[in-house]
Write a structure and sequence with these properties.
17% strand; two-stranded antiparallel sheet; alpha/beta; 8-stranded mixed β-sheet; 10 strands
Amino acid sequence: MSVREDSGILGERDSGKDLIIKSTFNLIKYDGEILLHGRKISKEDFWTKVSSVLYNPFDMFDPIYDIASHFVEIAVSHSVYSSDVAVEVAKDLLKSIGESEDVLYSYPSKLTPLRLKKVALVLASFLNPEYILIDDIEYGLSEIGRGVIVNTLLDLKSIINSNYVVFDNDPAVISRLSSYVVVLYKGDILEEGENVVEYPFHPYTIDLVSKSLSDENKVNERGCSYSYNCRFSTLKCREVKPNYVNVGGRLVKCHGF
C-alpha cells in the first residue's frame, strides 16, 4: 500500500487501521518496513515529516503541562522555533480555526473533547509535516462535533502544506477529506483508487458504504478474506485468494472482475 495526497484508509474498527498508525510511530513491533520517499521513517521524522492525531486526543498530551508547553517542547526539541516564537505560531494556527489563544494556558483535562481534538489537529500541523495521520475522528463527539472537526481540517488545509491520511470507518468523512481511498478488511486491502466511496466496486466496500454489513464479519484466511460474508461468494472465492485486478484504474481484489 502506498499513500498519496490526501488519502483515506476506510474500514471498520477491527480492520487493522490502528496498527498502521502504531507501526508508523514505532509503538508496536511489526514485520516489513514503512517508508517515506524510499527510506525508513526515523524518530527524527516525527512531527517534522509525519505526525498524527490519535483516536483519543487525551493520549497526545501530558496532563501535568498546559497546552502551550506541548507546542514549545516540540519546537525546541526539533530546533525549529524559540519558546516565544512557538507560542506565537500556535496562537496564529488556533486563530485560523476559530479558537482563542487562552486555550494555550489551559490543561488538557479542562478542555471538552471537541476543543481538545481541535487543539490536537493544530499540534499535529504545527511544524507543517508532509503527512498527518488522522485516526477515527468520532471519539467522544456528537454528529455535530464530527462535522466541526471535518470543517476544521478543511480550514487548516488552506494554511498548511501537509497531506492528510485519514483513517476512518465513516465513508462520508473519507469522501470529504480524501481523494485516494484504500479499503481495508481484517488487515487485507480489498480495493483502492479514486472515487471509491462514490462508486464502490468490491462487495465489502459496497456493504460498508450502504451500511449493510453482517454483524458477524468473519474472515476467511484461505480464500478471499470477505468471502464468508459476501452475497456473491462462490467456491472459488472461498478456496482461492484473489489477485488485484485493474478496473478502469481502480485496483480491486475480487474474482468477480
